[in-house]
Design a protein that fits this description.
heterotetramer; A: 359 residues; alpha+beta; Butyryl-CoA Dehydrogenase, subunit A, domain 2; Butyryl-CoA Dehydrogenase, subunit A, domain 3; 2 domains; 4-stranded mixed sheet; 3-stranded antiparallel sheet; B: 405 residues; Butyryl-Coa Dehydrogenase, subunit A, domain 1; 3 domains; 11 helices; 43% helix; 14% strand
């Protein structure tokens, strides 16, 4: 079985639900934003997640990991999406860990993994071109754009690849050799452009990665984005249903209007299809199945398009309130709009699906 | 080895030994085995396969063995289905007695009814059809008017049923009839079994846009029906019907996805039509993307069916998910049919004659025939109403008469 | 002004409405089909149309034509679509005439035009490859597929073209050198495959056509097809509205269900857009505007897709009755399905529109 | 030469002479000239242009000359509009007094009201806003609750209005208020003009998802309004409002198509993003086809606007066609906004800061701002209801309360 949760996964989902509702609710996002702060994960919250074991989920047991797998991680990210919680679950606990795991085992590598698991470092993650590396592989020169969580993070784990080789490098973001420029997007999250000025990479912070690392990391990023989009969609859907059941117009609940009922029924159907396709993609990644690229491209297309549909319906069916900043619907909508572009657009993934299907 | 694994091995061995190779290929319409008083077989192998399965009770694998059924539990039945699928075994017989009436009788019938009818269903001695819809009623099933009056030793039935699949070819019909006009319209309905050889029963086929006439209108003119043919209590037929509708909808959804998995791949016909470009892609971007969308949709539907099944097995069944299957499945099939025609142009618009290949002719026929999928078994509009109401809990409209099929 | 009818055009529309209702109603289509006949235009009906002047609509005044223009012809074809009338308006009175008009004036050409106008000949029309012509241009060898009206017609006017040259030839379809194979499509109309066996072309029945003739004839064919699709769509729409206003379910008219109302409202909007785009395309052809190819491709895409939408809604909203042969909806639907493929699919015309728009 | 041709020549000559070159470029938000008690101008040229147009009465070209208006007939007004468009002249001033209240006053106002207000509207002395919607009422406009009680020499108004465009910046507000609770809810509504400097009036801006706050909520706390500010009869305000709504919807539809004609062509941004292939096509088939669809849609809408106009001129007006314009226009704009963002990805998701170009920042702002287009001025759902009812004649649902805005 692969499309339903095990008992452990169900318990994990429950504790995630509880954690985000209590510690990182939507109101917290709003408070930070209203104070003109950047909505990033702070060290305190990260430590709480570390204490819950979430930073060690993907580590092998040999280095004290929980080996919980990507489906479990996906459900955490989904729950985080529902409260607009900013977390390093995707960047630090998943992509960074996966990147390191794509490198041959070594004490230095294991040490870094342990530090992530223990929460002593909170890295941002990026994929970039191999051309950033000097020819001796010992320094970085050039820039990376729109790096998520790069302002809140203390280090960067980057997978730098071209057609022939891939390397994972770890650099200190507080070094004077790297310039961080804040980038403010409509979702109010933590992004930055990074500029490296002949930054020397510590010898034990550079690793050769296996051949398929870049493709796999792109897939993991796309699947995690799809998982967050699923959470956002589910939440907007639920809030819209609640509004339809409560709001009255023309002497009746607006949820009793058949045209709106049919639209929500269709959205529900799409949400259910997305759930199946997403869980399958996460499972495919977890099990390193042959059809993993196809499964992930499918998930990202469907997540993008379902989130757009439901985001639009959410605003439209909330009517005038939907376009005010007072309701949260707009916050979800803006996050959806940004994530559509993260780790591949619908057009890119649809083209990829077509190619892999022999079309 | 668990019992179930043992069962799987034994089943596979039996199937390999007993299913003739000719019965392990895709089944065309003319190859289907139907039951009935005057049963005929498309081939000797088909007869052999039917009789072997019948004698094992596997025409109705989950029906109790005491009535001749296979007596399998759900897990075993799934194993049998999987093994048959894996080996490509055809269904030995197709009948609405097996798929619909049988389960309803087992749930709502009395002992005499079960003892009499279930063995006949298992053995394919009678072919059953369904009498629900009536002219003018459509989706509003409960407004049915076929009159059923009780007399001392019989009921007298007058009226007409429409959209009865294979009404002309069937032996018996299970019907919803009106036994009272008092109270809510659902409250006066009864569930009745009628032998179509009874005097006063007449079935006429309905011509369809696809050129087929699978459906019939059935007329009842002073038909006497023995009182023992009433299933459940009088005026309580609506509950039986609702139980039965679930089976019908499941069948429609499967029918949909089943059809779509047909032998004509869209990629193949598009390749024939447009060729491939230097990059190996089908050389018509709009069509290529449309096929990709269709394939994604079918993949999503299949994965959702699988998820729902796994959830049920794990005891985490979400009862709302199956509600979407008929809607998404039938819509997908129609999208496929339209795409297939758009790709092939005139060549797929043939009605008959030797200018066209069999598969070209099938394209248009499928399109026209499958228009029924979004209408029969509860229109897709009714399905969306049901999703809105049951799965989403959206409030009822303040309409004068709210009960919907 | 170009998107509204002149008084003459309105009068023409009225007489067309009256003519088709009286002489070629849908019931006539059904009668012929039920008798297993081919639904083609018979000589009697053609003579009536000739008497109404419809065969001379596009001829110049210099050869006694009415110079009525393609917008007027389009509205005739639209009205014919509404009753499923089989007419040679498109093949004989429009495409054949336009083909001959694309050739230099000559007594032989004018004589042929007059014969069409007088109804003494009823030609079918086809566009084919120049390779059908022998190198001396004096005979035909090879085949043409799916030629409309080719069984009912007495002659064929064919435009045979390649990149460098185009010729119009006129041949007798009753000659033993041409083999007609009936082709039965789902719309039950008159189509045939034609096979020419070194058929000699009469000297005065072969004409050089001007450079853009093939492109223009393709466009005229597409626009006429769009005009018929508009008529079919309008009729299915009107019949569906009538059914929604009459049929009761759950104690109310089904047209009172809001979900169906919104669907029909959207279909109405699309029908109105189609009307504007179609009239513009016909006007563009009539005025030989520079953007004629773009205008026509737009019209064919929108006609195809509107007719598909409305055809599908028509069947679905008629419920069980919609899929019976008893109602006419299915007959309209089948004609729509065939015309989607005539003179270019949506995919072809959308690609053409994109190209012409510099996309 | 006809009179109209003469008028066209004279108009063009006047415009060429009087419209400063700086006022013949695309107008950005900060360039708009608004009227008002404390009117300011973005530039000296803008002031000049406004004053010259004002003095000719061409701020309101069709208003009667006796009230200071231009006194043009419809044909002349169209000529003026065409010539301004052709020369690229900016509107000299934008105001809801000009576009909405003015025409309503001319139709429903009494002589004193016209004599007092119309000249001020023409001369831009007051800025007007609209008070229709109320918190909780939404599409159900007629359920409004703002209370208006008559006293000897004044009305007393209590309540609140929402979605008032530029409510904070305006001087006067035209309102729908409830003067009776008897009979149908539409029957107890009156149309009232209120000076926003009156004691008890307060306007608060509403923050939007786009980061703008164009709308306000306006509160009335025991506001005294002179009786002569009632337009039309008491309890007859619904008729005035309905007449006025036509103007609003027309404006929304134009706004939609107007926005879409903006300076960022989708083709251009797609070309920048994806480049072109060997055949010169934008090298991303899905996006290329989506842009083609969008451009076809916009072309169809423009042609339909033109057809409708030509029909009106030819006396063959189909009153149903204009009903679709708001729906199709606003939907098209939103499709465009989404496509623009999809093409540009992260680069179009900027909220502020110097990492983004002005046009990149505008992409996301447009998307968010234009979400209002399908909601304001009657939601698109209400528009579809209206089409179904008025254009298609579909029957009313048997709802308890059927009147819709």
């Amino acid at each position: 079985m692969s499309l339903v949760f095990t008992e452990e996964q169900s318990l994990l989902q429950e504790s995630a639900l509880e954690y985000f509702a209590q510690h990182l609710p939507t109101s917290r996002f709003r408070d930070i934003r209203d104070a003109k702060g950047v909505v990033s994960c702070d060290a305190g919250a990260w430590q709480q997640m570390v204490d819950l074991g979430w930073s060690a989920m993907l580590l092998p047991a040999s280095i004290d990991g929980l080996e919980f797998g990507l489906l479990g991680m996906g459900l955490l990210v989904t729950e985080a999406g529902k409260t607009l919680a900013a977390t390093p679950l995707s960047g630090a606990a998943t992509l960074s860990v996966e990147a390191l795991l794509s490198c041959a085992e070594s004490p230095a590598r294991n040490q870094l993994l342990r530090e992530i698991a223990e929460g002593t470092t909170m890295p941002a993650f990026a994929i970039g071109p191999a051309s950033l590396l000097a020819s001796d592989l010992k320094s970085l020169d050039g820039g990376l754009e729109f790096v998520a969580e790069a302002r809140g993070a203390d280090s960067l784990i980057a997978l730098l690849a071209d057609d022939s080789a891939a390397r994972v490098v770890v650099v200190d973001l507080n070094s004077p050799e790297v310039q961080r420029t804040a980038v403010n997007l409509i979702d109010w999250r933590d992004y930055a452009h990074l500029q490296f000025d002949n930054m020397v990479i510590a010898e034990d912070h550079s690793f050769g990665a296996n051949e398929g690392a870049a493709a796999r990391l792109e897939s993991v990023g796309a699947a995690m984005t799809a998982a967050e989009l699923f959470g956002l969609s589910q939440e907007v859907f639920d809030r819209t249903i609640a509004y339809l059941c409560e709001r009255e117009q023309f002497g009746r609940k607006i949820g009793s209007f058949q045209a709106l009922q049919h639209r929500m029924a269709k959205a529900y159907a799409q949400l259910q299809l997305l759930k199946s396709v997403l869980y399958d993609a996460l499972t495919a990644l977890e099990q390193q199945r042959d059809d993993v690229d196809l499964a992930v491209s499918h998930a990202k297309v469907l997540a993008n398009d379902t989130a757009q549909l439901i985001g639009n319906e959410g605003i439209q069916l909330h009517g005038g309130m939907g376009i005010t900043d007072e309701l949260d619907i707009g916050l979800f909508y803006k996050r959806i709009r940004v994530l559509r572009s993260a780790y591949g657009s619908s057009a890119q993934h649809r083209a990829n699906f077509a190619k892999l299907s022999g079309l | 080895m668990t019992d179930l694994e043992q069962f799987r091995r034994a089943t596979r061995a039996w199937l390999l030994e007993n299913c003739p190779p000719s019965q392990r290929t895709t089944v065309a319409k003319q190859d289907v085995v139907w039951p009935g008083r005057n049963q005929t077989f498309p081939s000797e192998d088909a007869r052999l396969w039917f009789e072997r399965m019948r004698d094992k009770g596997w025409t109705c694998p989950t029906f109790p063995a005491e009535y001749g059924g296979g007596g399998l539990d759900e897990a075993q039945e799934k194993v049998l289905r999987e093994e048959m699928q894996d080996l490509g075994c055809r269904p030995p017989v197709i009948d609405q007695g097996i798929s619909m009436l049988g389960p309803a009788l087992l749930e709502f019938g009395n002992e005499a009814q079960k003892a009499y009818h279930i063995p006949k269903i298992v053995r394919g001695e009678l072919r059953w059809c369904q009498g629900y819809s009536e002219p003018g009623a459509g989706s509003d099933l409960a407004s049915l008017q076929t009159k059923c009056e009780p007399f001392d030793d019989h009921f007298l039935v007058n009226g007409s049923k429409i959209w009865t699949s294979y009404g002309v070819e069937s032996d018996w019909i299970f019907c919803l009839v009106r036994t009272s006009n008092e109270g809510a319209k659902q409250a006066g309905i009864s569930f009745l079994l009628i032998d179509m050889e009874s005097p006063g029963v007449k079935a006429e086929s309905i011509d369809l846009i696809s050129g087929e006439s699978e459906f019939a209108q059935v007329f009842f003119d002073n038909v006497k029906v023995p009182k023992e043919n009433l299933v459940g209590e009088i005026n309580q037929g609506w509950a039986v019907a609702k139980g039965l509708l679930k089976h019908e909808r499941k069948m429609m959804a499967e029918l949909g996805t089943g059809f779509a998995g047909g032998d004509l791949s869209l990629a193949k016909i598009a390749e024939q039509q447009f060729g491939r470009d230097a990059a190996g892609q089908i050389d018509q971007p709009e069509i290529r993307l449309a096929i990709a969308d269709y394939e994604m949709n079918m993949r999503a539907i299949a994965l959702t069916g699988q998820r729902s099944h796994e959830e049920a097995q794990a005891g985490q069944m979400d009862r709302n998910v199956p509600l979407i299957m008929k809607y998404v499945g039938t819509t997908a099939v129609q999208t496929r049919d339209e795409l297939a025609m758009d790709i092939q142009g005139y060549r797929s618009a043939g009605w008959h004659d030797e200018n066209f290949s069999v598969s070209e002719l099938r394209t248009a026929r499928d399109l026209l025939f499958n228009k029924a999928l979004t209408i029969a078994g509860g229109t897709n509009e009714i399905q969306l109403n049901i999703i809105a109401k049951r799965a989403l809990g959206l409030p009822d409209a303040p309409a004068p008469d709210k009960e919907e099929r």
